[in-house]
Amino acid sequence: MPKTAPFLVPTTLLVRPRYGIRCGPSTDHPQVPATLFISDLHLAPERPVMIECFLGLLRKRAREAQALYILGDLFDAWLGDDDDQPPYPEIRAALRGLTESGTDCYLMHGNRDFLIGHAFARDTGCKLLADPTPVDLAGTPSLLMHGDLLCTDDVPYQKFRRRIRNPVVRRLFLWKSLSERRAIAADYRRKSGAAIAEKTQAIMDVNQRTVEKYMRRFSARRLIHGHTHRPADHSFTLDGNPVTRLVLTEWHTNRGEVLAVSENGWKREEIRLG
Ligand code: MN
Description:
The protein has a single domain, classed as Metallo-dependent phosphatases (Purple Acid Phosphatase, chain A, domain 2, 4-Layer Sandwich). It starts with 34 loop residues before the first strand and ends with a strand. The chain is built from seven helices and eleven strands. It has helices at residues 48-59, 88-100, 118-124, 155-164, 167-175, 178-198, 208-217, and strands at residues 35-38, 67-71, 104-108, 127-129, 133-137, 140-144, 222-225, 232-238, 241-247, 255-262, 265-272. The radius of gyration is 18 Å and the shape is globular. Bound molecules: manganese (II) ion.
């Protein structure tokens, strides 16, 4: 057995955020904490500047916040919680520093780091979130997702997603040595790069009917997700109610972005190095 068998734990054991997150009258005042959302950083050992940018967010801006939600693809790849190559220990320690400072940190799996397990959560103090997770944000019923479940026009991807997230498949993968897992991941990356190049832009975006289905199911007035790398604020009407879909920004070499939500609404804040 590997040290971590994260996916055999029923999803009911995943911690869901408390309802009724309190936010103050203004997100501009440092004394009034907002709730922060990020996704799609795709951190990797070969991207040290971006890692510094993220560590800076954890050391400063996130400590003023009520909570930090990481909605998937924090890492460009995650091969198991036993992967201790630099810079992963440093990132773990920085997340631990944030949660010990009093800011709650929630982590949702993305399609690239869905093998983050309970050992990682224990080491960092982060709480794993199911996808989707409903949460009340300053009185607005909101739904949090990574976003890949919304891309239902990409039928082969959805099939692949179901296959690799099968608990047996995951467990067999985690049983392999780290070097075997690295080889499998590298091979997969080569193949998926070619497959993605053949797909149209429209197929890789969300399907509006799927968006509406999820929002209806959770009576959500706001949906926050990443994954598509198409940051935008979409407003539309659902069953007579005005609703919003906020798409998070993917991070670039030396520049990231957080979405800060309070009872006043939301704003996008740039995160730069230093
Ligand atoms: Mn993704």
